[in-house]
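Retro notes (design track)

What went well: tokenization of the new backbones is finally stable.
What didn't: we kept losing track of which sequence belonged to which structure.
Fix going forward: every design gets posted as structure first, then sequence, in one message. First example under the new rule, 203 residues:
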């Protein structure tokens, strides 16, 4: 039993020291820059870029954002929408991504306002994600992705084209206000965290 606990602790420490295989840390919501000790790669040379499904939106409408690549795979991603009136905060909601490689994240106090990777495995583009524009929104938006290709090769805040506020109104209800906006961590992760805490207490 003790051996098992140490095994979990070892994994935990290995996780801490090998960048962020579990996703971008909360503290990087604003600057979107991984603390990898090397400078960000030049955006002009990025093999990754973003495509948006529309040039305008109404409140509550969905926009499909696709991470495209000229061939390269990537390991990490941090994706947010930023309004022209609040360029430092993640805005709107992301739907739960398909598959298990990516997950929702809370930034700027807004639940599910960012997406990040959930493991350190190689991921292929195109990867498609669905964003829902906030209610009562009047500003224009751009999407920004930080993509980690390899540990020392990452591109910070790759911008999409601008998505402007269309003319008109739309009835809009924030996701989660009517039930299923909240995603719980998987049981395995909950157990894992509980065990890590137990080990910390035993020491
Ligand atoms: C980019 O998005 C537009 C609008 O949805 C779509 O027509 C186009 O095929 C997309 N391009 C790529 C390369 O996915
Ligand atoms: C997620 O998967 C479903 C079922 O295959 C598909 O219809 C949907 O378009 C996918 N969503 C995205 C964002 O690709
Ligand atoms: C949108 O604005 C209306 C009227 O000001 C307000 O009642 C409603 O709560 C707002 N909705 C959101 C999601 O902020």
């Amino acid at each position: 039993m003790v051996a098992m606990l140490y095994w979990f602790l070892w994994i935990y420490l290995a996780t801490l020291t090998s960048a962020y295989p579990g996703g971008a840390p909360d503290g990087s919501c604003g600057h979107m820059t991984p603390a990898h000790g090397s400078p960000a790669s030049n955006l002009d040379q990025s093999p990754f870029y973003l495509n948006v499904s529309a040039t305008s939106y109404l409140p509550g409408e969905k926009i499909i954002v696709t991470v495209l690549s000229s061939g390269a795979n990537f390991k990490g991603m941090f994706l947010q929408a930023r309004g022209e009136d609040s360029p430092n905060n993640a805005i709107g909601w992301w739907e739960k991504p398909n598959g298990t490689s990516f997950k929702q994240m809370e930034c700027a106090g807004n639940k599910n306002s960012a997406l990040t990777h959930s493991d350190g495995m190689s991921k292929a583009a195109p990867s498609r994600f669905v964003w829902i524009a906030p209610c009562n929104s009047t500003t224009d938006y751009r999407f920004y992705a930080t993509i980690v290709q390899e540990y020392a090769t990452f591109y910070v805040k790759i911008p999409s084209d601008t998505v402007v506020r269309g003319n008109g109104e739309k009835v809009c209800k924030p996701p989660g206000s009517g039930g299923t906006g909240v995603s719980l961590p998987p049981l395995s992760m909950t157990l894992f965290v509980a065990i890590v805490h137990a080990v910390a207490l035993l020491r």
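Added context from the reviewer: Residues 135-136, 174 surround 2-acetamido-2-deoxy-beta-D-glucopyranose (ligand 3) (CB under 6 Å).
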